Amino acid sequence: MPMQFVIQQSQLKLKVSDCTFQNNYSKPTNYIYNPTQNPSMKKFMLISLGLLTLFTELKAQDSKSFQGYFNYTYSHKDGKISLEVKELDKEFLYVTSLSSGVGSNDIGLDRGQLGRERIVKFVRAANKLLLIQPNYDYRAISTNDAEKKSVEEAFAQSVLWGFTIDKEENGILTIDLTPLLMQDVHDVSGRLESTQQGSYRLDPSRSAIAMERTKNFPKNSEFDVMLTFTGKPAGSYIRSVVPSPEAVTVHEHHSFVELPDHGYKTRKFDPRTGFFNISYFDYATPISEPINKMLTVRHRLAKKDPGAPSSEAIEPIIYYLDPGCPEPIKSALMEGAAWWNQAFEDAGYINAFQVKVLPEDVDPLDVRYNVIQWVHRSTRGWSYGSTVTDPRTGEIIKGHVSLGSLRVRQDYLIAQGMASPFEDDDLNTAPMTDLALARLRQLAAHEVGHTLGLSHNYASSSNDRASVMDYPHPVIDFKDGRLIFLTRMILVLVHGIKEPSCGDIRIFLPVLMKTRNSFASCKRPLIKDGNISQTRMAGPQGALTLIHTYGTMAATLSTN
Q: N or C end: fewer C-beta atoms under 10 angstroms in the chain?
């Protein structure tokens, strides 16, 4: 009987014809049948094997595999992510964020905005995998397992999601991760409602996995989704930034991250340092000690030579600047952020804090990179420094700075209004530009300081501007009855101070230049041989607290 198979997919074709198979045998009992004894059957089996191979290749073309921390496969056919889970009950960090925002400062949904960080683990329950968040707010730091279990059972955990096990092979469980990814983990709809912009709901038909920013690495797996929220707009903010305000489309991001190893050394929190802290209750604490434990939040940093007064770091702290920053803003931000290296030098580290431009192929939400993002909004808004922190220890895993792009333009306009520079012509823009860029340097240093662990220091303005973690106002002066700004132009032309040959000029010095003596309590001179020296631009208080927190030995701080 003649048979013909024609299979076509893209450029793949297979054609078999004129094959005659005779079914003229009988299979006796207890006889092991060998189809290769029949030439026609042998040909049929070869054809079947070819067809099976072809279908397998076609199925592979329908999906793409990603190897990394969690291996997963993306199906082009149904748009789903299938995740492989190899180790049960192993904790990892689950971080959520907003990869593309709304663009309104008043609404507060910015590009690159970090969300929540949670320690989670996969736990099996029959044919399900549960994503469980343990409760690290209540612990028992003890070698007694029963004591630990008593605390664990006393306080609730959280099951974040439940998955049906689709496949189990060689100890590897495969689940459909898509439902977890396609939820509104950043609570965009809640934010729109709380800012009175309208009632919005997630529309699954207009949402999908965003593969451009879905990637896999050895220690972190990254997933990005495009979510569309539909509703009736009620506020002016949402109407001003969305082309069709009845449909608001943003991108949300999910990161599965390997937890740091146990090499990090925690540091007990000292409130005098002005650093942030994490806290938890330790029920194994002796009754004579406080049960509430507090640890300082900081980056991991260790010397190559622990015994040397100054040494390079085993791994320096590197911050990466948004490549979308234009000049001269880019240079100003890099200079301002780099001020902190001076404080790390005082803490005994050589070139331990560095600032570079983010490589083009790196996603700013990749937790392996500390980033300084240049964020655009429709109106001038806040800048802020955030972190991804290990909830167990307080170790900063990622520093994430967001700087509003309109700040520099507002500072320029303020300077213009104060100086009234256009008496003779409209070309005298240098003083305002210098001031605006100077304020930008200070802003970069301030927000990076937050991501190093430092909180605000509002007392510094009345104490010789001792820390960049305050909001010091511009240094101004009067000459011949006119207002002047103490920026590069004035330092050079009015005060006769030369620029350093290295070109690393500090336009905005957080001191009163007219004192011309020393930088607050620092021993390093401010002015030396007519040049601006490499002063501690973060301020002596900022340097002192950083020495205590990042130094190899905690400094003894005076109660005064």
A: C
